[in-house]
Specification:
Chain A is mostly helical. Chain A has 13 helices and no strands. Chain A has a single domain, classed as ABC transporter involved in vitamin B12 uptake, BtuC (Orthogonal Bundle), CATH 1.10.3470.
């Protein structure tokens, strides 16, 4: 049993780190903001943590906290200009943000060691810690979603005109979701850095952006289980299709297209809706049987 | 007893690139009564609603809500001061349950702070429970209890209209704008909604009904305004207005 776990430890860690990044992507999309800034927040959190540990000699826990807070602060600064944009323009703006960050990291040699990346980061984040942190974040997002803020985010995502005519202020809700996204992205990046000994700028580029987005689209944008399912599927899938070498991305792309076409609300949300529908139908027919 | 004027439009105009969509409209909507706004297609009725709701900005004039100038208020803040509406083509969160859709109407009555709601503190929980109970009362009143757990988009058009109505009433508004609420309904369905509208008005809400269906309007409105090409062409009691030669011409297109 233990051997089995050790063989897959790296994959499990990978899933858990990506679960954090996917939840960062999920929370902005739940509130109807099409930000793809998660990879950028992860870069800030990852590099911030790595630099503070290896260059400034900070204890890892403090460095992780600082990396997360810096990413959160950057997302808070971005919230206002981003709230003036809509849909695809938000995506383009945040994509540019990620590209600019990666370029800065590659060229700011004195701070980031440029293309060499930062190595010698102690691997302090174990699977146990990752499990604990992911569990705390899941509970936090689940609670947040159950009360009026989560409901307000759902209305904003579906129809902003309806939201404002119900007295729901769009900007504070979207700003809140972006700040949480920044914190989770930063935390995910910090976990990534402290789980993999070394980081380079490429780790946080378009690949990560694309993965976090694909996980959320595949899993779903409403229930917090969506990004979790997305992370599990999209980390394991390339492993399963490893024999197909580079063609494995064809499978990933095809799966994503199928989901978008046939389950546009994502795997988790579609599943929960189907379960609910079933329960409603059986209780209605039970009631009908009683009255007849 | 004088009834207070909840909504007053004073010389309200809105131009789109120099073309007036609504031109110098003045009207009053009183508490406890249903006021009708009618007019042929393209008369500017929905533009009036959007101006009142703050979704469009005024080119000229003022909008007063209970005597307060709300012309420059943001749409969300206007709604928070007690203006609810329904939409001409039903707009719900289609994948949410009926109950969740109704619950979203309670947003403006939220007193627990953002912090309490983010972390699910007792104050937020108690409030959610209270709103849930109130939502159940609304469902009962609209005979929708058995659909509480159904997905909104799975229900018929008439039922979806009721959901929208319940959501608007969850806001406990002082002013309720109904944008063609019985469009596409048969006379029986329309009549049963008409009864509910009268009850709502009787509870002291000012109701502004935008409608096409003349028979329906004349049966439940106590005062009518007629809009044509963005201007008011007639106003008064339903019986008199519907006999007005200008109104007949506007509707029948006679020269």
């Amino acid at each position: 049993m233990m051997d089995l776990f050790l063989a897959y430890e790296a994959t499990v860690d990978h899933i858990l780190v990506y679960a954090l990044l996917a939840m960062s992507q999920y929370i902005v999309m739940r509130g109807g903001t099409f930000s793809v800034g998660t990879a950028g927040f992860a870069a800030i959190g990852g590099y911030g943590t790595a630099i503070l540990i290896t260059r400034a000699g900070w204890p890892p826990a403090a460095a992780i906290a600082a990396g997360t807070i810096i990413a959160m602060a950057v997302s808070a600064v971005m919230a206002l200009p981003l709230s003036r944009l809509r849909g695809v323009f938000q995506a383009v703006a945040t994509m540019a943000f990620v590209q600019v960050l990666v370029t800065v990291i590659l060229n700011w040699d004195s701070l980031t060691r440029g293309a060499l990346g930062i190595s010698g980061i102690p691997k302090v984040v174990t699977t146990g810690w990752l499990l604990l942190i992911v569990a705390v974040v899941v509970v936090f997002l689940h609670v947040l979603g159950r009360f009026s803020i989560g409901k307000a985010m759902d209305v904003i995502r579906e129809d902003e005109t309806v939201a404002v005519s119900l007295g729901i202020r769009v900007i504070p809700h979207q700003a809140l979701s972006l700040v949480i996204s920044g914190a989770l992205g930063g935390l995910g990046g910090a976990m990534f850095a402290c789980n993999s000994y070394a980081i380079t700028a490429e780790d946080f580029g378009f690949g990560m952006l694309n993965n976090a987005l694909a996980m959320t689209v595949l899993g779903g944008r409403k229930s917090v289980w969506g990004p979790l399912i997305g992370a599990v599927v999209l980390v394991i899938l390339p492993e399963v299709f490893r024999p197909f070498a580079e063609y494995r991305y064809v499978f990933q792309g095809a799966l994503l297209m199928l989901v978008i076409i046939y389950l546009p609300n994502g795997v988790a949300d579609t599943l929960f809706a189907a379960i609910r529908e079933r329960r409603v139908r059986s209780s209605t027919s039970a009631a009908a049987a009683r009255t007849s | 007893m004088t009834t207070p004027d909840v909504l007053q439009l004073e010389g309200v105009s809105r131009h789109f690139g120099g073309v007036p969509a609504v031109d110098n409209v003045s009207m009053t909507v009183r508490a406890g009564a249903i006021t009708g706004l009618i007019g042929p297609n393209g008369a500017g009725k929905t533009t009036v609603v959007n101006l009142v709701m703050g979704l469009l900005h005024l080119s000229e004039g003022r909008v007063l809500l209970s005597g307060r100038d709300v012309s420059r208020l943001e749409a969300a803040d206007l709604a928070r001061s007690g203006v609810a509406r329904t939409f001409q083509n039903v707009r719900l969160v289609p994948n949410d349950t009926v109950l969740d859709n109704v619950l979203s109407g309670f947003h403006r009555h939220q007193t627990a702070g953002m912090f309490a709601n983010v972390f699910g503190l007792p104050s937020a929980r108690a409030e959610a429970k209270r709103h849930m109970a109130e939502a159940r009362v609304l469902l009962e009143r609209f005979q929708m209890t058995q659909f509480a757990g159904h997905r909104a988009s799975a229900l018929s058009y008439g039922h979806q209209r009721r959901i929208e109505m319940m959501r608007a009433l969850a806001m406990k508004p002082q002013l309720l704008l109904l944008d063609e609420p019985v469009a596409g309904m048969n006379d029986t369905e329309a009549a049963s909604l008409g009864t509910i509208f009268k009850e709502i008005a009787a509870e002291g809400v000012a109701v502004l009904l935008i409608e096409h269906n003349m028979r329906f309007v004349s049966s439940i409105c106590s005062y009518l305004y007629v809009l044509s090409s963005g201007r008011l062409i007639s106003e008064g009691l339903p019986g008199a207005v519907l006999k007005d030669q200008k109104v007949v011409e506007a509707y029948l297109g006679a020269a």
